[in-house]
């Protein structure tokens, strides 16, 4: 019997869980070089989360075991006025950053509590969210040295350039998953 319960949340429901989400976020960085970086603080998480959860097309999926939050994933559909691509360091093809509100879903965060890592929770959360979305592509930002980068590449994401979304943030690798290529990979 599977102990995990996956649940979709709208923005209002998600904001009610912000403090609990922030705690899991903060735990993910304990013992890492980012542990004392203000960008990875709970306060900065909640500040960014409030912006993300106010965006059209926001969605959160949580994983619980007997009422305990063990992981989550969230993001939003990039609107035509999205600033998502503004921090690109590398050139991309013309039209690549054109957004319509229905073209690209941006994954903001995916975290799983330490005791649950390596048990397929991240894959289940990702699959649950991706299968629920209609956008033809997804994007995520990941630090080049983050082991999660390998997971995203395994899921079919491809690097498109480097991006720094905030002046105080690291420079991330911007990865994109084309849903059509994902279908071909799983076929």
How would you characterize the overall build of this protein?
By secondary structure, the chain is of the alpha+beta class. The protein has one domain: Gcn5-related N-acetyltransferase (GNAT) (Aminopeptidase, 3-Layer(aba) Sandwich). The protein contains six helices and seven strands. The radius of gyration is 16 Å and the shape is globular.
Tell me briefly what this model is.
The protein is built from six helices and seven strands; from the N terminus they run βαααβββαβαββα.
Question: What topology does this entry show?
Answer:
Elements: E1 4-9, H1 11-16, H2 18-27, H3 42-53, E2 59-65, E3 68-77, E4 104-112, H4 121-132, E5 137-142, H5 148-154, E6 158-163, E7 172-178, H6 179-186
Parallel strand pairs: 4-5
Antiparallel strand pairs: 1-2, 2-3, 3-4, 5-7, 6-7
Helix pairs in contact: 2-3
Radius of gyration: 16 Å
The count of strands amounts to: 7
Order of strands side by side in the largest beta sheet? 1-2-3-4-5-7-6
Q: What is the CA-CA span between the terminal residues?
A: 28 Å
User: Treating each run of at least 4 consecutive H or I residues as one helix, how many helices?
Assistant: 6
Mean of all residue-level pLDDT scores: 91
Low-confidence stretches: 183-187
* Silhouette: globular
Report helical residue fraction.
25-40%
CATH superfamily: Gcn5-related N-acetyltransferase (GNAT)
Number of domains: 1
Fill in the CATH topology: Aminopeptidase
Largest sheet entry: 7 strands, mixed
- Beta content: 25-35%
- Give, in order, the helices and strands: EHHHEEEHEHEEH
The CATH class assignment is: Alpha Beta
